[in-house]
Amino acid sequence: MSELDLENLISEIKTYQPLADTSVVEKAYHFAKSAHAGQKRLSGEPYFIHPLATARNLVELKLDPTTIAAGFLHDVVEDTYTTIEQIQKEFGKEIALLVEGVTNVGKIKLRGNREEIFLENLRKLFLVMAKDLRVVFIKLSDRLHNVETLKYVPEQKRKRIAQETLEIYAPLAERLGMGDLKGKLEDLSFPFVYPDEYKWVLEVSEKRYEETDRQLKRARGMLINELREANISAEVHGRKKHLYSLYRKLLLKDRQIDLVYDLVALRVLVNTVAECYEVLGAIHKKWKPLKGLIKDYISQPKPNGYQSLHTTVFGPEGKIFEVQIRTYEMHNVAEHGAAAHWDYSQRKSVVKNDAALDGDRGVNGASFEWVKKLASWQRMTRDSEEFKNLLKNDFFAGRIYVFSPKGDVYDLPKGATSLDFAFCVHSGLGSSCVGAKVNGRLVSLNTPLENADLVEIIKSKNQSCPKRDWLEIVVTGEAKRKIRSSLKRFENK
Ligand code: MN
């Protein structure tokens, strides 16, 4: 730990923000270093390695000097004699608010009656988050270093931190489209939460990786040649599926690793959207795709902003594997999500317009829809019990993505029905719903939707009040809340 760390950090920031004033980062570095002087981590190392690692993770996310400075300072109020007033005096109100936000989130712990407290804590977390997303970026960067050093933590506490990471922070990173961070958080926590399952997945996957890796190397060589002939300049990498995400998939596939086709995958990076489709064409010319497994997340991005083309093909030796095709820009978004869209000059996340997309949603529009929704839930739900149910049913249950006839993507919990969809689009649409077509076929209103369904709501001009028994059909807290409030309005008339 030396001045060299600071120099490296600053020059790294200059690579993505050449004109940034980094003096605040330097000041925060020195301030935190002296505030934590003499303190040690459980590993025996100087405490300061932790805020330093947190700041590094924020630089990895390409965040602005203000956020990085707050990263350096994130533990000084909690763990030293420094007060928040001092931070405000030295660094200004903005940084003080960020440090205070992270300190408050840090007090949130899973204890006692688990579920009850867990949900209440989530509520607090979201309250802080809706105020400033940068608090979450700092908290996630902080948590990453904490799970990287989990082995030094006493066993009892270790499991709690790992579990909290799997249950709260990794899903949060995923919902913010931060794929890289999510994968790291999960894989580092996995062995501490499910030690036996971890050993099992490691064992079944290791043998397969070797074999599949060899075949993939061959496929990669063939694909590079093919693309060269087609005159497309591209980078082709192999990517290994993260262990925890493999574990989740194995649970869905009766624990049969033969049924997991994306254990390893090829990832093709190109410059333009047009080239993505050219690459897809070149691949299908060479290898036959499996039916139903071509996914176009470029024209239909996932709600968290993820874009790519996916296809699963019969490759050399008839071996089935997945190929993911995206631009460098999409790759950056897939790895860093909301952080990639953070515009520090506007102090908010911005939706970039991508000329390749129709409409005005932009690359990452949908994911911020979600953050906005979160904030509005908090305003509308004064009752914390109701808010907890919203979170429990809507945030953490497995998700499905469905389409409106216009092609907009909606993100719903598993088990959601056409009625949930209708109320998610608009209260008025929900209230006047008399039927639904899913993929062109009429279905009853209580039929659960499936991933990628196209849902069309049939409405009637003569109906403007929801039916009371719909409360039994819908599963989302949002639909329940909207139905109840319409019913109440009609009863009062
Ligand atoms: Mn910390």
TrEMBL record:
UniProt xrefs under InterPro entries: Beta-grasp_dom_sf, HD/PDEase_dom, HD_domain, NT_sf, RelA/Spo_fam, RelA_SpoT, TGS, TGS-like
TGS domain location: 398-459
One of the GO BP terms on file: guanosine tetraphosphate metabolic process
Chain ranges passing through the membrane: none
Pfam families, sorted: HD_4 (PF13328), RelA_SpoT (PF04607), TGS (PF02824)
Superkingdom assignment: Bacteria
Pathway in which the depicted protein is active: Purine metabolism
Function per UniProt: In eubacteria ppGpp (guanosine 3'-diphosphate 5'-diphosphate) is a mediator of the stringent response that coordinates a variety of cellular activities in response to changes in nutritional abundance.
Family, as annotated: Belongs to the relA/spoT family.
NCBIfam families the record matches: spoT_relA
Protein name, UniProt field: TGS domain-containing protein
Organism phylogeny: Bacteria, Katanobacteria
